[in-house]
Specification:
By secondary structure, this protein is of the alpha+beta class. Helices cover 43% and strands 27% of the residues. The protein is built from 3 helices and 3 strands. Strands 1-2-3 form a 3-stranded mixed beta sheet. Strand 1 (20-26) and strand 2 (29-35) form a beta hairpin. The longest helix has 16 residues, at 50-65. It is globular, with a radius of gyration of 12 Å. It starts with a helix and ends with a strand.
Length: 75
């Protein structure tokens, strides 16, 4: 799942080397924290959060196949 999130984020930003994804376990939910460069934050979030919602939708669809509960936070 980390590879999927980082692949999507790296294709959106100008500084792909600054992209990092960490996983934190909270109860039975896996929380993935996406870190990007400050100047690339707008590209990952998008207008009215549309790109962020799309990233979360793709990751949740992949999580359903693995029968997991997943959340994506953009830090």
């Amino acid at each position: 799942m980390i590879e999927l999130i980082s692949l999507i984020a790296k294709s959106l930003v100008k500084q792909p080397d600054a992209v990092s994804v960490t996983m934190v376990q909270k109860g039975n939910t896996e929380v993935y924290e996406l870190h990007v460069a400050p100047e690339d934050m707008g590209k990952v979030i998008g207008k009215q959060g549309r790109i962020a919602k799309a990233i979360r939708a793709v990751v949740k669809a992949a999580a359903i196949k693995e029968n997991k509960k997943i959340s994506v936070d953009i830090v």
